[in-house]
Design brief:
The complex is a heterodimer. In chain A, the strands form four sheets. In chain A, strands 9, 13, 14, 15, 16, 17, 18, 19, 20 and 21 form a ten-stranded mixed β-sheet that branches. A seven-stranded antiparallel β-sheet of chain A has the order 1-7-4-5-6-3-2, with no helix packed on it. Chain A is built from twelve helices and 21 strands. By secondary structure, chain A is α/β, with parallel strands linked by helices. In chain A, β14, α3 and β15 form a beta-alpha-beta unit. In chain B, strands 8, 18, 19, 20, 21, 22, 23, 24 and 25 form a nine-stranded mixed β-sheet that branches. In chain B, α4 crosses α5, α6 packs parallel to α7 and α13 packs antiparallel against α14. The relative contact order of chain B is 0.10. Classes of the chains: A alpha/beta, B alpha+beta. At the A-B interface, β5, α6, α7 and α8 of A face β1, α3, α5 and α13 of B.
Chain lengths: ~450, ~575
């Protein structure tokens, strides 16, 4: 983003702190970009002729006589089909050594879709993982995060989901990603031969944290281009949204705003909603589906970031290590896909919703039986059967290494029902029991 | 001359203006920038500096941009033509907007100026009328709507002329009134009202008492809400707040349903757009959309308009109540509204109250709930606004300011619980913590005695007591083990499980089970109470469990069967046979 000729250059900065600097300037628009000694900055406050700029790279080394040039526009991204297969930084500049993108320049963080112009999501996204497809079916146009502790293999699961899902484009927005994870995604995608449908915007832990604030808008602007202009199905992966929220907290703190819960800004809900609500099914066939990662600290979902996220997204997926089978499973209790009823039993076999609920209920009975066992009480015959069922259910269905289609998943579940239970113990509508109970 | 101003400061959607004339708190102004006109509301005045909250994105707004004040507060336009419309929080008709994306500065007229309505006069020339009196009637979507004397007028007027029955547009003059001084006031079908001011155009607001049937058993039977009542549904995410709210708005026996989607997911609104035009109102047989208005200010739409949206919806509800209609207003979620207040208060650098919410959050919430109610209008007719709000407590903690302040004013409390949701016991309304204060109203007791019978409230209380007892025993069993308690304890526990599975739990996605009419609820309650009063003989607790699981299964199959169908009767027989097996008395 070079400066152009005949632009007014300001050279008198009145105030500098860790993230922002202020100066006297006129004719400046809100949200406008500026260059401060070659560093990109954005207008965050105007009071008379006092203008406050948020410097993305941080204000290290900015002198009071720094050269400030206003660019007369908000952050933009050049969009065209050339984006496909490329890697960019938070400013939308290529980091893969390739040429600059030619295309239409559009402002990022653009307007919202008119709700009446949306279509109800109705297409199933199959991932082969039963913990997702059977219990928490994903739908195109949905937004759903993984709630995971930092040591859990969420990036691997997400990469798997991305590659197995039938989508036209996969857009990766990496925020505060370690360089190793970035290279992991790059390798997995190129080994799968999928690189030409991947676009990545990456801010690694080596980059300044405030830059991360641009990543989701960059990724989603690219997504909107492919979904609107080319009617494509776009899957956007955002990892990790907790790093994004941390950057928001840093900026609001530097601007002396009163923090609300967990030192997060009071506007956290709206800030996150603006991103997640870009997930949409357009009537023309294009769609944007968002799968994100929100890392938890010590599994605490009442922290402001996962809590606000849960209210915005259409469900959440929890990973948990099941010590009985020694594998990571998709936790059926805490996970939820709010849109599943739009497809389950409609795009999948009719018995799907009831089978899913019955299996989870029996799995809950097994959890109770386990507590009883741990407390040293005698188990009933039913308790023992639920425990045996739970082990098979976790191994054959909940584990993240499963790869089946939904009909196979249902058949496996019916098999387990009839192996361990009597029909009256599973509480399913009679017509389904008559049809599918394995005699 | 209208007051003018110019921009001197911008922080996100809070803009500071200097003005050249008088300005009122909450007055609306329009700021011009880059060819767009941005609507804004005055929230603070300091000398000639006026702070406004802009209802749109302020991107690119510069110092010096001009603003023009309108002289009125944020108001809505009311009249025939609002039913089945989709509005944003400022009452713009979303369907009239161009393009896929919302364009900044695009405002659309909420009513239809071309449409003709068949007007039937109610008053005659020479009649004396006061504000809000009914002058005539039009019909919209089979709903009789009243054309009223403008709400803002005061005193009494004489009808000078009234048009005869015929077709008129909303802008045509349908009546002329004369005031005491002989001035003529022409009246058309359009009313305007500032949203933040409660309409008090009724004679009396008694305690509400008539049951509002929702078809949801855990509400109607266990914690009933009444016409003109207030209720709220708090719950952590994922506990089924929205599903429960949608079920109520689909099934409730109301004339008009207004849904304020306040700061929630856009796809939830889309679900209503998509499903309501197809679904049938169980009470009238007409399409649900015909009686529904949606005020959608989803979470990605501007924050300031989110605050306005709940007021917009409430004012519309008051408009229909003044016409003698039964209105149900649902707001999802009032926490997002409170958060919008918090964001603005924060930008204005006000001293924060608990959890950084503004200090007056408590009075704001209670004033809003106070606008609901059952009323006798000046002409003796009745009307009601039943208000149910959801609350999204941060971290599921019910001790946060919005939940606590709502609890002080709402009379019904439907506490959604994570544990029940985890165990897929839907609707996840906690049977012990939830309550309906209306059960204690003598007016309600009288009403329900007339409608069902005098034993009803006693039965409901018995169910509640049994649920509590069941919970206590479950805790004892957890501590002492199955063998550690007498077999009779297991029987009591399983009787409470029967109440839970058969009455409380309900499948919102099953065609039959999702709606239970009151008559059927009565039958279920009687059936369950009968079982509870039956003495059984068991040798050990395993027998108890197996037996009651069988019973629950049969009762659930009954709930899934069409009422009084062959299948239903057959399961009823099976239940009786099963009871005979173990009956001790």
């Amino acid at each position: 983003m070079a400066t152009k000729a005949f632009q007014k250059i300001y050279t008198k900065i009145s105030q500098v702190n860790k993230a922002t600097c202020s100066l006297k300037a006129t004719g400046v628009g809100y949200d406008e970009l500026a260059m401060v000694n070659g560093k990109l900055a954005q207008v965050v406050k105007i009071a008379g002729d006092d203008v406050t700029l948020q410097v993305f790279e941080g204000t290290e080394g900015i002198p009071t006589n720094a050269e400030v040039v206003f660019l007369g526009k908000s952050p933009t991204l050049k969009v065209s089909e050339q984006l496909a297969g490329r890697f960019f930084n938070a400013f939308g500049d290529p980091i893969d050594g390739g040429p600059e993108i030619e295309g239409t320049e559009v402002e990022i963080g653009g307007p919202s879709v008119n709700p009446v112009r949306r279509k109800q999501p109705s297409e199933l996204i199959a991932t082969g993982i039963a913990g997702i497809d059977l219990n928490n079916t994903l739908v195109s146009g949905q937004k759903i995060p993984f709630f995971a502790d930092p040591d859990q293999p969420f990036n691997q699961v997400m990469a798997n989901v991305a590659l197995r899902a039938e989508t036209d484009k996969i857009i990766l927005g990496g925020m505060g990603m370690t360089n190793d994870d970035y290279l992991y995604f790059k390798n997995v995608f190129s080994n799968a031969g999928a690189l030409d449908r991947i676009i990545s915007f990456v801010n690694t832990t080596e980059n300044p944290p405030v830059e991360r604030l641009l990543i989701p808008d960059m990724a989603l602007t690219a997504a909107e281009y492919f979904a609107v202009e080319h009617n494509q199905k776009v899957l956007v992966l955002l990892t990790d949204m907790t790093s994004y929220a941390d950057a928001l907290a840093i900026v609001s703190n530097r601007m002396d705003q009163i923090p609300s819960k967990d030192s997060m800004p009071g506007s956290l809900y709206s800030d996150l909603a603006k991103i997640y609500e870009k997930a949409v099914q357009f009537p023309s066939g294009g769609s944007i589906t968002i799968i994100a990662v929100t890392t938890l600290s010590g599994g605490d979902i009442t922290h402001a970031v996962p809590d606000n996220t849960g209210y915005i997204t259409e469900g959440q997926l929890f990973l948990r290590r099941d010590s009985d089978i020694g594998k990571v499973i998709v936790d059926p209790f805490r996970s939820l896909s709010r849109l599943k009823q739009l497809v389950s039993g409609k795009k999948t076999r009719k018995d799907h919703p009831q089978v899913m609920n019955a299996a989870v209920r029996l799995y809950a009975d097994a959890a109770n039986a386990k507590t009883k066992m741990e407390n040293g009480f005698d188990l009933t015959n039913y308790d023992e059967r639920t425990l045996a069922f739970a082990k098979d259910y976790a191994n054959q269905l909940l584990a993240i290494d499963v790869n089946l289609n939904t009909t196979e998943m249902l058949d496996v579940t019916w098999g387990l029902f009839s192996k361990y239970f009597k029909p009256e113990e599973v509480n399913i509508k009679k017509e389904f029991v008559d049809q599918y109970w394995k005699k | 001359m209208a007051t003018k101003g110019s921009v001197v400061g911008v922080i996100a959607n809070m803009v500071t203006l200097t003005v050249d004339g008088p300005v009122a708190q909450n007055e609306i102004c329009y700021i011009s920038t880059g060819g767009d006109r941005l609507m804004a509301e005055v929230i603070k005045i300091v000398g000639t500096n006026v702070y406004v909250q802009v209802f749109e994105s302020t991107r690119g707004l510069k110092v010096g941009a001009e603003a023009e004040f309108t002289g009125h507060m944020l108001e809505v336009t009311l009249g025939p033509g609002m039913l089945s419309k989709n509005y944003d929080g400022l009452q713009n008709d979303l369907d009239k907007m161009e393009g896929v994306f919302l364009k900044r500065g695009q405002y659309t007229y909420p009513l239809d100026k071309e449409a003709k309505w068949l007007f039937k006069p109610i008053v005659k020339v020479g009649d004396e009328v006061g504000p809000s009196a009914w002058l005539g009637e039009v019909e919209e979507n089979h709903q009789p709507l009243k054309i009223m004397v403008p709400f803002q007028l005061t005193g009494t007027y004489k009808v000078k002329s009234i048009v005869s029955e015929g077709e008129y547009t909303i802008e045509d003059t349908v009546a002329v009134l004369t005031d005491k001084d002989g001035n003529d006031i022409p009246v058309n079908m359009i009313q305007k009202w500032p949203v933040k001011k409660a309409m008090t155009n009724y004679k009396e607001k008694p305690r509400p008492f008539r049951l509002l049937e929702t078809g949801v058993r855990v509400i109607d039977t266990v914690n009933p809400i009444v016409e003109g009542g207030t209720g709220f549904i708090p719950g952590p995410f994922g506990t089924g707040k929205t599903v429960l709210q949608h079920a109520i708005s689909k099934q409730a026996e109301a004339d008009i349903v207004i849904i304020a989607a306040c700061g929630e997911r856009a796809n939830e609104v889309v679900e209503i757009f998509t499903e309501f035009p197809e679904l049938v109102d169980p009470h009238t047989g007409r399409k649900l959309m015909e009686r529904t208005i949606i005020v959608a200010n989803t979470s990605n739409m501007p924050v300031a308009a989110r605050e306005a949206s709940v007021y917009t919806a409430m004012t519309m509800a008051e408009f229909y109540r003044a016409q003698g209609l039964k209105v149900l207003l649902m707001a999802d979620s009032t926490s997002r509204w409170a958060q919008a207040l918090r964001e603005m208060s924060n930008r204005m650098e006000e001293l924060p109250g608990p959890d950084a919410f503004p200090m007056d959050i408590s009075s704001i919430i209670s004033n809003f709930y106070g606008r609901a109610g059952y009323v006798y209008l000046n002409n003796g007719a009745t009307g009601s606004i039943t208000f149910i709000g959801t609350v999204s407590p941060a971290g599921g903690n019910l001790k946060e300011p919005v939940t606590e302040n709502t609890k002080k004013v709402a009379r019904c409390f439907y506490a959604l619980e994570q544990e029940r949701a985890d165990r897929k016991r839907y609707p996840a309304v906690n049977p012990i913590d939830s309550y309906s204060k209306y059960l204690e109203y003598p007016e309600f007791e009288q009403y329900i005695t007339d409608r069902i019978n005098g034993e009803w409230i006693g039965k409901v209380n018995e169910l509640k007591t049994r649920l509590l007892r069941g919970k206590e025993i479950a805790e004892q069993i957890n501590i002492l083990g199955d063998d550690g308690v007498p077999v009779e304890y297991h029987v009591i526990f399983w009787k409470s499980e029967l109440i839970d599975f058969v009455i409380l739990q309900q499948d919102a996605f099953d065609e039959v089970d999702s709606v239970t009419p009151m008559e059927r609820q009565e039958e279920i309650v009687n059936m369950v109470i009968d079982v509870c009063h039956t003495e059984f003989k068991f040798d050990n607790f395993v027998e108890v469990m197996d037996y009651f699981k069988k019973m629950i299964n049969i009762c659930k199959q009954m709930n899934y069967s069409k009422y009084k169908s062959e299948q239903y009767v057959e399961f009823g027989k099976q239940l009786q046979e099963l009871l005979a097996e173990r009956r001790a008395n």
